[in-house]
Design goal:
Shape: globular
Number of strands: 4
Number of helices: 5
Strand content: 15-25%
Distance between the termini: 24 Å
Helix content: 25-40%
Length: 146
């Protein structure tokens, strides 16, 4: 079974949780530190689990500029790997969302998809997404390192 990944922004993920009851799903919810966690419909029984993470949208080329702000860590990537492996045979869809649904969530989703041996080119070729390469590489490395 090929798992489907949906990349969303915070607002759309919140809204969809109240209307999408079609498939079992797990959610990777990425927020900016200090922001409130995204709320999801607690009555939506198709949402099996939510992994909440918070880190700044900082990539390789901007770490020097944003000293003192935490980018995605290796520990975040391991949490993502463990979460995906826990649910990959149990749900049909994993939603990955961040504030804008363009950078962090796209990078994480691209890393997961590649690590699972699937084609992630639609993310890198899309004009809708600009994957955070730090998120992409850390996620991919978490799956491939022993």
């Amino acid at each position: 079974m090929i798992m489907k990944f949906v990349i969303l922004n915070k607002s759309k993920a919140h809204r969809l949780s109240y209307t999408d009851y079609s498939s079992d799903k797990a959610i990777i919810s990425i927020s900016t530190p200090g922001d409130e966690k995204t709320e999801f419909d607690s009555n939506n029984k198709t949402i099996k689990e939510i992994l909440y993470l918070d880190f700044y949208d900082i990539s390789y080329n901007s770490q020097e500029i944003f000293k003192g702000y935490e980018p995605m860590t290796d520990e975040d990537a391991v949490k993502i790997k463990d979460f995906v492996l826990k649910w990959k045979d149990e749900v049909d869809i994993i939603w990955v969302h961040c504030d804008a649904g363009i950078f962090r969530s796209a990078g994480v989703a691209a890393g997961i998809i590649e690590a699972l041996g699937e084609d992630n080119s639609y993310i890198f070729d899309s004009k809708m997404y600009f994957p955070n390469l730090l998120c992409y590489r850390k996620t991919l490395n978490a799956f491939t390192s022993k």
